[in-house]
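Can't attach files on this board, so I'm pasting raw text. These are the components:
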Amino acid sequence: MKNNGRLDISRNTRSGNLWPWCFAAGLLLCLCSATARAQLSIEIIGGGGDQIPITVLPLADEEAFPQRISQIVSADLTRSGRFKLQDIGSVRPLPSEPNEVNYRYWKNRGTQTLVIGRVVQRTDGKVEVRFRLLDTSKEAQAVGYAYTVVTSQMRAIAHKIADVIYEKLTGEAGVFSTRIAYVARFPQRYELHVADADGANSQFILAHNEPIISPAWSPDGTRIAYVSFEQHRSIVFVHNLVDGTRRVLAAYEGINSAPAWAPDSKKLAIALSKDGISQIYMIDADGTDPTRLTNSGAIDTEPSFSPDGKYILFTSDRGGTPQIYRMSVTGSNVERMTFEGSYNVTPRYSPDGKSFAFIQRMQGRYSLALMDLATRQTQILTDTQLDGSPAFAPNGRLILYASIVGGRGILAAVSSDGRIKQRITSSAQDVREPAWGPLAANR
Amino acid sequence: MKRVLIALCAALLVAGCGSKGSTTQGKAAIEQRDVSTPTTDQQAAEEAAKQARIAQEQEQLKQQVEEQKRRQEEAARQAAADAEKPVVKPLADTSMTGKALADPASMLKDPSSPLSKRSIYYDFDAYNIKEEYAHMVEAHGKFLLEHKDMKVRIEGNCDERGSREYNLALGQRRADSVKKAMTLLGVPAKQIQTVSFGAEKPKSPGHDEEAWAENRRSDIVYVGVDAQK
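---
Top answer:
C-alpha cells for the assembled complex are below.
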C-alpha cells in the first residue's frame, strides 16, 4: 500500500453487549463491539524520509478467517509511516516456512525483509498463528513466533505481530496494540470512546447529552480520568475500565478539571477553583487529600507530569498571557518555559521526558509545537488552524491531536519530527480530545 | 387609534350604501303610482309633491355626503395629529430606590429595563467587564439587593480557540468577575452562583470572528425564572 492511500479501517463488527467483561478478561484489545457509531478512518497524508522496505506475504490459510492477519500487519506498518510495503511478487504457492523461501528470487526483487507465516485451525477450536521475519541477505530468520489464540483474538495478535516487526526493525517499541480514547459529539449527545490504536473496535464507555473533556489514561492502563458536565458543571471522574465502575474524583465548588496522572497511577494533579481561581492541586486517585501546589492568583491549569515524576509542566497566565511553566512536583522552583508569542498552552511531556508538545498561537493560527528541553528550541509541527489537545503515543513517535477541518472536529497525528501526518475522521459530527493509552503491560 | 379609524370608515360606508338603497326604492314607488293613477288634477298635484320629495331627498343625500366628507377629513386630521403625538407607556422603576412597582419576574422581562439584558461580552482572553456592560451589571446587583429571595447563576463562556482547559478556567474567571462586581454592591454571595462552561457550550456554532465574539460571554441566569439551558 502506498502513501496517500486511504485506509478505511471501519468494518462491521459482531453485535452483542459483550464489552464490559471483555475488559475484565484482561485482553489487550476489546474484540467485541456494542456500538460502532463512531468508527474512525485513518488517512495518511504525508510520509517521510528513510522508510524501511518490507514485504508481508499473505499467511497460508489466513483467508479462512474473518481477520486477515497479513492485511492488518501491513496496514499497521504503513500507518506508522516508517515502512515501505512492497508487492508480494509472483511466486506461487507462497512460501509459509523458511525452507520454502527462494531467497535468490526475493534478493533479485530488492526485498531485504520478508514476512511469512501460516494460520492453522486446531482441533480444540483455537487457532495457531505462526509468523517469521526473514532477512534475505543473511538468508536467516530475524524473529519468529507462534501464537495459539481463540479466533476473536486474531486481530489483537496481528497488532502484536506488527509490534514485534516494528521493534525488531526500528529498535523502538511498537504501539499497534495500544488503545486510544477520544470524545465523539453527535447532535445533543457526547460519547467517550475507547478504540484500538488503528481506530477499530471503537465503543463508548460513557454517553450523555452534556460535554465530556480531558480524558487521561492512568499509566497502568486500567482507568481513565475525565471531566464530565453531566451535572451542568465540570466534575472529574475516574472510570475503571476493568469493571466499568466509576467514582467522583473531585466535585468541589467552581471548576474541577484537567486531570493528569502521576507516573505511579496513585495520584493525580488537577485544576480546582475551590479556593478562588483555577489552581493546581495534587489529589489521591481515590479523591481524598487534595493538596494545593500553586498559589499564583492567576489561572494555573493543564498539569503534565514528567515521566520520572519529578516535574510538572502547566499553563498559567500569571505573566499576563497564558504561557507554559515548569515546577517541581511539590510546587517549588517555578520556571517559565515559553516566551515566543502571547498564547502557549496545553503542555504534554514526551514519554522520554526530553521534550514537550504544546499549542502555540502564531499569526492567529493555533498550531501543535514541540520544545526540546535541552536546547529550548521550538518546532512547529502542523499547518492547520485550530489545533488542540496533543497526546503522545507511548513510544513518543507520533502525537495525536485535535483539529478543526471544514467546520468539523477531527483527530490528526503527526510524527514528532513533523514528517508523517495522518488525518482521522469519523462518522460522528465531531471527534476531539484524544488520549493515547500506555503500552500493554505484558510486553 | 388605527383600528378606531378603520371601524369608523367601515360604518360610514355601510351608512352610505344604506341611503343610496332607500333612494332607489323611492323612485320605484313613484313610477308605480304613475301607471296606476291616470286622473289629471290629481296628476298635477302629485307631480308637484313628487318633485318636492325628490328635492328633499336630494338635499338630504347632499347633506349626508358632506357629513361623510367632513368626518373623513376630521379622521385624517386626527390621524396626522396622532402620528406627531409622543408615544407614552409606563416605565419600570430602574432606580430601585423605592418599593418595586411590579412583580420581579415581569420586571426582569421588561424590554425597556437594563434587567432584560443578561449577557456580558468580552475581548479575547479577557475577563474584565467592559464599560458598556457596567450599568447593566449594576442594575442586576441592585435588583438582587431589592429581592433577597432571588438567586442568579452566572455562566461563563469562551470561544473555541485555544485550550479547552484554559478556556474552562477563563470562563470561571469571567463568571467570578461578574459575581465580584455584584458583591461589591453589597449583594450577599449566597445569592450568586457561578459556573464555567468554557468553550463547551457555544451559543453560536460558527468558526469565525462573529461566532467567537458571540461566544465570549457571561450570562446572568435567574434561577427559577429563566429556562434551564
